[in-house]
Specification:
This protein has 230 residues and is mostly beta strands. It is built from 1 helix and 15 strands, in the order αβββββββββββββββ. Strands 1, 3, 4, 6, 11, 12, 13 and 15 form an 8-stranded antiparallel β-sheet that branches.
């Protein structure tokens, strides 16, 4: 049997060992930030109240149309009066009074005219001015001028990706998500499959800027737009 002094020492050692082992054990850490993790909704749009929250570069090329989802912001013709200074998209609709660096944008889009390999829609973001911004070009068949993530920086648009995935355009509605994280530089875009990026890249050129939708020179309808902060 232990003597009292020995028993006290043993109890103190056991208590110290338990605390030490507990401190050294790996603890469950919070889940790493997901590329698609987002918080509160700060902007949503279904166009039932009109176009007051949008700045459209060439209003004659756009209108509200019905495509089975109520009002949809729609490009009604391929031609545009807008002539950018550098080679870049012609159909641009920007959200008014909203500039973000980091965000998650989700929307629904329907291509309303089959134009072949470059049938597309575009997403504009970190938009500084008409000659400085990023855009995603969801072109049907990728090549250096289609189906890539592009940068416009006081020069004709240049691809940041070398994507080879086709975009399966048809006459149905599709869901698109864009994630932008300026700290990591991540730009990731999803098409229908919202778990696996259709394409992604890392770039730190532009930070906080405007957000918009459109096309290079094709026709689309947009609806159910939601933006979350990150």
């Amino acid at each position: 049997m232990y003597q009292p002094a020995t028993l006290v020492a043993l109890l103190l050692f056991t208590s110290w060992a338990n605390v030490t082992c507990t401190a050294d054990e790996p603890t469950a850490s919070p889940a790493a930030a997901s590329p698609v993790a987002a918080s509160e909704v700060i902007f949503s749009e279904d166009f039932e109240a009109g176009l007051e929250r949008w700045e459209i570069v060439d209003p004659q090329s756009w209108e509200l149309q019905q495509h089975g989802k109520g009002n949809s912001l729609s490009i009604k013709r391929r031609e545009s009066e807008y002539k950018p200074k550098v080679r870049s998209p012609h159909h641009i609709a920007l959200i008014k009074d909203l500039e973000l660096a980091d965000f998650e944008l989700t929307f629904q889009v329907k291509s309303t005219k089959d134009t072949g390999n470059h049938r597309d829609c575009c997403i504009f973001f970190n938009y500084q001015d008409p000659s400085n911004y990023y855009y995603v070009h969801l072109g049907a068949k990728p090549d250096p001028a289609s189906g890539q993530i592009f940068i416009v920086k006081d020069a004709p648009r240049s691809p940041l990706t070398n994507n080879e995935k086709l975009v399966p355009w048809d006459d149905q509605w599709h869901t698109v998500r864009l994630v932008r994280d300026t700290a990591s530089g991540l730009i990731a875009v999803y098409f229908d499959d919202l778990e696996t990026p259709h394409m992604q890249v890392v770039d730190h050129t532009f930070g906080k800027g405007r957000i918009g939708l459109g096309s290079f020179d094709d026709m689309n309808a947009f609806d159910a737009i939601e933006i979350r902060t990150r």
